[in-house]
Design brief:
By secondary structure, the chain is an alpha/beta fold. The protein has 16 helices and nine strands. The chain has one domain: TIM Barrel (Alpha-Beta Barrel), CATH 3.20.20.210. Helix 8 crosses helix 9 and helix 10 packs parallel to helix 11. The radius of gyration is 19 Å and the shape is globular.
Length: 343
């Protein structure tokens, strides 16, 4: 049977006339309808755990823009919460968690089997979406990569240089490695459940992979992505995996081959021409418009969008931003981008 979904075709390695397109954080604060539903839920975490409302905000950008993919509305920090970490969001600042700085704190976390009790509403969101989406729209599930999630669990918040996580991995490898193992196993179990509920593709977000260099990049970004991908493929060989080792630079080269991922998502710190030459030669790439273009708009947005489409036109490509769309983005600019891609 022919695969009607454009995103699935690109992930299978097909070069398409016009690339499929979606945006990281496409359900977010730049949309008035998102802000209204979030207010109805009360706060961000209540929205994540309210399956009907989480499905509703996932669908909002699909209705408004007709993207080729919907990404489950949830957050990478729900897994640490399911493992027993305290989690809350400070308005205007971001996430806060209880910290892990010594083995005793790690030892208090729950076993992998216990996470589903907390995460069941997320699987319900996936089931709802799987029923509601049209036959053209692909449903993407996701999780954070172990390194990125560990950086938040160790520091208890986002950090500019992931200093506390680097310190723990150097000074207390026993605790750090134990945490990485637990997160790797937890991520595998979490993603498998999302797939069983109806996710057709999974994406692994390693937002802070760029702060790992050399051997540390191999050990803490590449190896976990490889382990997670292998476990997913063993249970669900038909489900494509997108890896996003953000700001990996040269680390993007060969990342898909080394991990078994079907697609590598590229941030906008590297040029599309460079990525086409060095990364797309191995298969599908996703990216990589600067999210700032969605704020500034105008002719520059159109020109830059077309330049990226052209740069990647020789191989399989999924159009996306290099990182999430920001709350100050102009909703009308998304139409400009889509027109530039689809004509
Ligand atoms: O892409 C999507 O639309 C799917 C949903 C999604 C969210 N977060 C919703 C969200 C996804 C895939 C994420 C991933 C995520 N979450 C990452 C990795 C990707 C990246 O952006 O680097 C990270 C590091 C997080 C952790 C996180 N969640 C932070 C640091 C913040 C605060 C920063 C901010 O933008 O406010 C969040 C909150 C968050 N996650 C929001 C959304 C829509 C904003 C919450 C709100 O409504 O106030």
């Amino acid at each position: 049977m022919s695969q009607p979904k454009k995103l699935m075709r690109a992930l299978a390695g097909e070069t398409l006339e016009t690339p499929p397109v979606w945006m990281m954080r496409q359900a977010g604060r730049y949309l008035p309808e998102y802000r209204a539903t979030r207010a109805e839920a009360g706060d961000f975490l209540s929205l994540c755990y309210n399956s009907d409302l989480a499905a509703e905000v996932t669908l909002q950008p699909i209705r408004r823009y007709g993207f080729d993919a919907a990404i489950l509305f949830a957050d990478i920090l729900l897994l640490p919460q399911a493992l027993g970490a305290d989690l809350w969001f400070v308005t205007g600042e971001g996430p806060r968690l209880s910290t892990i700085t010594e083995y005793g704190q790690f030892a208090k976390l729950k076993d992998v089997d216990a996470i589903h009790e907390t995460l069941n509403p997320v699987y319900d969101t996936v089931s709802i979406l799987s029923r509601e989406l049209s036959s053209e729209t692909t449903l993407i599930g996701f999780a954070g990569a172990p390194w990125t999630v560990a950086t938040y669990m160790i520091a208890g918040r986002g950090t500019p240089d992931q200093g506390p996580a680097h310190a723990l991995r150097e000074e207390d490898p026993k605790t750090f490695d134990a945490l990485m193992d637990l997160l790797t196993q937890g991520t595998i179990s979490y993603l498998k459940r999302q797939i069983e509920a109806g996710a057709e593709v999974v994406k692994i977000f390693d937002s802070w992979a760029g702060s790992l260099k050399g051997e540390a990049f191999t050990k803490y970004a590449l190896e976990p992505a490889k382990a997670i991908t292998a476990a997913i493929k063993e249970a669900h060989p038909e489900v494509p995996v997108i890896a996003f080792p953000r700001e990996a630079g040269d680390g993007y080269i060969g990342f898909a081959k080394a991990t078994g991922a079907d697609c590598v998502a590229i941030d906008n710190s590297v040029s599309a021409d460079w990525a086409a030459e060095h990364v797309q030669k191995d298969g599908c790439v996703q990216g990589n418009l600067d999210p700032k273009r969605m704020v500034t708009g105008g002719e520059a947005l159109v020109t830059e969008t077309k330049r990226i489409v052209k740069a990647f036109s020789g191989g399989p490509h999924i159009f996306n931003l290099g990182h999430g769309i920001t709350p100050d983005a102009e909703p009308e600019n998304v139409h400009l981008m889509l027109e530039a891609i689809r004509g």
